[in-house]
Design brief:
The protein is built from 31 helices and 34 strands. By secondary structure, it is an alpha/beta fold. A seven-stranded mixed beta sheet has the order 5-4-16-15-14-6-7, with helices on one face. The radius of gyration is 28 Å and the shape is globular. This is Molybdopterin-dependent oxidoreductase. Its cofactor is Mo-bis(molybdopterin guanine dinucleotide). InterPro entries: Asp_de-COase-like_dom_sf, BFD-like_2Fe2S-bd_dom_sf, MoPterin_dinucl-bd_dom, Mopterin_OxRdtase, Mopterin_OxRdtase_4Fe-4S_dom, MopterinOxRdtase_cofactor_BS, Prok_molybdopt-oxidoreductase. It comes from Shewanella sedimentimangrovi.
């Protein structure tokens, strides 16, 4: 048997993975151009993620197992009836970048081609649609011009709104190695000092939303200072003069504009000089995309590269860092509601082409509902049947309350997934078991346009099917021709053939994979990774200066709304005088984003203990000044809300801290209860929370407090800078339970199960003024005692069965750091004095956050090593050598460097 070469299931880097012949081991594929053999810690634990706590293996109707024939027949009946009685616009698909290209292709073909409904959108709308719109406006087509080699050939790489050290770690490690070998400069533009910013040569900390103004100002200054490539601009672009004129009025006072962004004139000039004097790659991600003016901001970035003539050349250009493994493939087959297959629009000529290619099809004549519009229409009763595939909108979409109402209102909700446990799956009428990574085969396209094979290496269990098979079964049941594919390779060939037809009719289009038209099933199975245009000598697009408009010229695009500096000026977000402190909506602007080791809504990673150790439970990270102004200590609980809380009859707002426990059910659903943690990297007034937490940990997902504001051009939701209010609840009781849970009802604000390799554990937070009550129940013997940790009292309660420790609680007010793994391992051990002493010692020792997951090194371990660092040694190198941290995937190096820097500063102070 040979190894199976496939691709990673996570980010858009698209790393190659080699699976051992027995399917029990993996390593990075050294032959894959994306990662050259390297994997991040999520990728290294792909096999650990496969045993799901609850896998969906058979169709379920209203919670009861059914068969595929009955499920497909019911779907055909309900979707056909909706189209017949209410029109094509009453049915919809909501898809995902987790689908393979072939799944995406047939889903788009069914809905847009044969239902006649353009209501087909994807969760890529939430992360990449601003880039799509910006590319279309500037280049004439949704195209990423560069490739990963550009990060290694650039003289300067600017990362904007990207924490690549965590979100695209393998690509970021390539960049760090380029700096070591070639001296590549790294600039990070981000409000937070992220793990990426900590490793940059220069971190520019802008006010949130300041990117549009900065790159508009940069364009003006580059032009004013003669940095333009006039020959390139004249030959290959249009619209520069109009763009400069529109910006000049808003940004005439360079000094005032720079100050509003928190930059001095010398700092602005430094950035101008870096751009004019180097080959530059500007890479952007969600921090840019997920803004109300995200599309305009990306066009502002592209404008700078067009001015410098730095597109289509080695080591330079704008680069969109894609979030999902096949977000690019989905865009190519028309999975967004605003486009058709092969980057076609809804014009008469494009629709006629598709009608001829798909005989019997009836195509919509206008774009469909985008993600937030779709669920709003569903909540209004306009969507009568929806099929959701491989995504969890109850957690990932903004305004969770609206999404829940939409799914409860829609008469027929079908969900295809690998587990029945997601927040969305629990609201489905019909659940369909889908093949997951390791079981399904097809292709994906990564951020640099490389098409790779994803291959199955495990046999499917139960009756799970590939998504394309389920779509084709429904299409045939509804009487449509053209869905009888004998293999997944046949779907790919049809996708290829369509690209050839499109290129023949619209020669200005750049998307072209027609060289693969004669690919046999055997050649498809053996296909090595390849970048399109297939067979091209030049790996970059636009090397000849021709863009995808009919005249071949790229467009400079001015912002639809000019930057307004007072609106982004870093004004105090809260009044620091406690007597005047108010908590009105808008006092805080919440940012959410990825944590290092989790993926999306934790469906595939939340049950892997090793990936949970960096952040055991949801926390709200606050700037120290905010903590001080609100009189908060680490571990104190806050209520985080997006909208007004429940009002009493007289219209007076109810404060959570004033509610009795029995009244907590009346609190607005758009409220999260989170312990706070100090974060020196944050600006005052701009708290941060990881995006991954769901209703299963919080009672409501993080996006319960995110309003459905969208970019007016791309319709992408603006997850960044959300206005929220914080209501401090103070040092409420926190209880952590291990092992067998005692009987009796606990009255709590929040309950969360922890993922541990051995033993069960749960965390409870209680309402203000309510103390946890021990209730041994089940006729178990109980012990109850307390410990003193400084000024803090810690209560312990243990349950004993057959002279062994059956379970125990640890409770305290406020912060309660614990080593959950060590404590859970004590459950089931014989109870004696030595075990109780060990338990007490472990509780008092607390917990040190895990920094290096690959080597299992905690912050305390690094600090211990640094304390022994000999004079003259470099602390970072010493810590790495002594502990092994950073020698695995390398994504922890930013945190290790920050700890080493703190050590150096403290050493300088002590020797001062």
């Amino acid at each position: 048997m040979r190894e199976v070469n496939t691709t990673c299931a996570y980010c858009g880097v698209g790393c190659g993975v080699s699976i051992a012949p027995d399917g029990k081991g993996l390593h990075g594929d050294a032959s894959h151009s994306a990662n050259l053999g390297r994997l991040c810690q999520k990728g290294e634990r792909l096999l650990d993620s496969l045993p799901l706590p609850s896998a969906l293996r058979y169709p379920r109707l209203h919670g009861k197992t059914t068969d595929w024939d009955s499920a497909i027949a019911l779907m055909a009946e309900r979707f056909s009836a909706a189209i017949r009685d209410h029109g094509p616009g009453s049915v919809a698909l909501y898809l995902s970048g987790q689908l393979l290209t072939e799944d995406y292709f047939v889903a788009n073909k069914l809905a847009k081609g044969f239902w006649g409904s353009a209501n087909v959108d994807t969760n890529s709308r939430l992360c990449m649609s601003a880039a799509v719109s910006a590319h279309q406006r500037a280049f004439g087509e949704d195209l990423v011009p560069g490739c990963y080699q550009d990060f290694e050939q650039a003289e300067l790489v600017v990362l904007v709104g990207s924490n690549a050290a965590w979100t695209h770690p393998v690509l970021f490690q390539r960049l760090l190695r380029a700096r070591e070998s070639r001296g590549t400069k790294i600039v990070v533009i981000d409000p937070r000092k992220t793990a990426t910013a900590a490793q940059a040569d220069w971190h520019i900390s802008l006010p949130p939303g300041g990117d549009l103004a900065l790159f508009s100002l940069l364009l003006l200054e580059l032009s004013r200072q003669g940095a333009a490539d006039p020959a390139y601009v004249e030959a290959h672009t249009q619209g520069l003069d109009a763009t400069l004129a529109s910006l000049d009025a808003a940004l005439a006072d360079t000094g005032a504009a720079a100050r509003a962004l928190g930059l001095s004139l010398p700092e602005l000039q430094k950035l101008v000089d870096l751009y004019r004097g180097n080959k530059v790659v500007t890479a952007f991600c969600q921090g840019v995309n997920q803004q109300v003016q995200g599309t305009d901001t990306i066009n502002a970035i592209i404008n700078c590269h067009l001015l410098l003539g730095q597109i289509g050349k080695p080591g330079c250009g704008p680069f969109s860092l894609t979030g999902q493994p096949n977000a690019m493939g989905g865009r190519e087959v028309g999975a967004l509601a605003t486009q058709l297959a092969c980057h076609l629009s809804f014009g008469d000529a494009e629709r006629q082409l598709l009608h001829g290619f798909w005989p019997g099809s009836q195509l919509p004549d206008a774009p469909g509902l985008t993600a937030t519009e779709l669920f709003r229409a569903m909540a209004d009763g306009k969507i009568k049947a929806v099929w959701i595939m491989a995504t969890n909108p109850m957690v990932s979409l903004p305004d969770r309350e609206l999404v829940q109402r939409a799914l409860q209102t829609c008469p027929f909700v079908v969900v295809s997934d690998i587990t029945p446990d997601t927040d969305t799956a629990q609201l489905a009428h019909l659940l369909l078991p889908a093949l997951g990574w390791s079981e399904k085969s097809g292709t994906v396209t990564n951020s640099e346009r490389t098409i790779s094979r994803q291959r199955a290496f495990r046999a499917p269990k139960g009756e799970a099917r590939a998504d394309w098979q389920a779509v084709c079964a429904l299409a045939q049941a509804m009487g449509y021709d053209g869905f009888d594919y004998p293999s997944v390779a046949a779907i790919f060939r049809e996708h290829v053939a369509l690209s050839a037809v499109v290129k023949g009719v619209f020669p200005e289009k750049h998307f072209d994979i027609s060289a693969l038209a004669t690919l046999s099933d055997e050649a498809y199975e053996a296909m090595a990774p390849l970048r399109w245009p297939v067979g091209a000598q030049e790996p970059r697009l636009f090397a000849d200066g021709r863009f995808a408009f009919k005249d071949g010229r790229a467009r400079f695009v001015p912002p639809a709304v000019m930057p307004s500096f007072p609106a982004i000026k870093a004004a105090p977000a809260i009044n620091e005088r406690p007597a005047r402190l108010t908590l009105e909506p808008g006092n805080f602007q919440l940012n959410s984003g990825r944590s290092r080791d989790q993926w999306h809504t934790r469906t595939r990673t939340g049950h892997v203990a090793a990936l949970c150790r960096q952040e055991w439970e949801p926390q709200l990270y606050l700037a120290p000044k905010d903590m001080q102004a609100l009189a908060l200590k680490e571990g104190d609980l806050v209520a985080l809300t997006m909208q007004k809380q429940t009002e009493q009859a007289d219209g007076v707002a109810v404060k959570t801290s004033e509610l009795k426990p029995s009244e907590l059910k009346n609190v607005s659903k758009a409220e999260l209860f989170l312990p706070v943690k100090k974060d020196d990297s944050l600006k005052p007034g701009h708290p941060f929370v990881s995006m991954h937490w769901t209703g299963q940990e919080l009672g409501s997902g993080v996006n319960a407090v995110v309003a459905a504001e969208v970019d007016p051009i791309s319709r992408q939701p603006a997850f960044k800078g959300q206005k929220v209010r914080l209501n401090p609840l103070g040092s409420v009781w926190k209880l952590v339970h291990y092992g067998e849970l005692a009987s009796g009802q606990l009255q709590y604000l929040r309950r969360q199960k922890l993922c541990l390799e051995s033993g069960a554990a749960e965390v409870f937070y209680f309402p203000p003024g309510v103390a946890p009550e021990g209730n041994p129940g089940r006729q178990l013997k109980a012990l109850r005692w307390q410990l003193k940790a400084g000024q803090k009292t810690i209560w312990l309660q243990a349950w004993i069965r057959d002279e062994t420790l059956a379970g125990f609680n640890i409770a305290a007010k406020g912060d309660l750091p614990l080593d959950h793994i060590a404590l859970a391992a004590m459950v089931g051990r014989p109870l004696d004095g030595a075990l109780l002493k060990t338990l007490e010692s472990q509780v008092l020792a607390g917990d040190s956050p895990l920094v290096c997951l690959c080597r299992g090194v905690s912050r305390q371990g690094i600090e211990t090593a640094l304390a022994q660092c000999p004079d003259g040694s470099e602390p970072l190198l010493w810590a790495s050598e002594q502990t092994g941290c950073g020698s695995g995937c390398g994504s922890c190096l930013g945190e290790v460097r920050a700890i080493a820097d703190e050590f150096l500063m403290s050493a300088e102070v002590s020797h001062g």
